[in-house]
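Every protein is a chain of amino acids, and every chain bends into a shape of its own. The protein below has been through that process, and both of its lines are reproduced in full.
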Amino acid sequence: MNALVVGADRLGNIPETLLGFGIHVAHHVSGRNASHQRKFTGLPSNTDLVILFTDFLGHNVMKSFRDAANRSRLPVVACRRSVCCVQKSLECLDLDKSRKSPCATCPAVKKFATK
């Protein structure tokens, strides 16, 4: 699975963490460039997932990439740029449909579902 990562100047350990989920960073956009802050028209053709690092992006940039992903019917993960946050977000996304999602067994989710 190929991912477009948006936000952060450097990714650090994030690519290794993503490889553990079978995700390859196909494209990385920092979001700082002025052209990224305007209306974004489309995603690269080989993109299967969009990861947005919320602590490094402005609202307009995030909205543009999220809208482009929604038009392409791609999953979007929005999280902070930390290995722990990325892992938790991807586990809740449940990319591997054969295993049981940790969010489905979470007591907090069950608590809200019964109300």
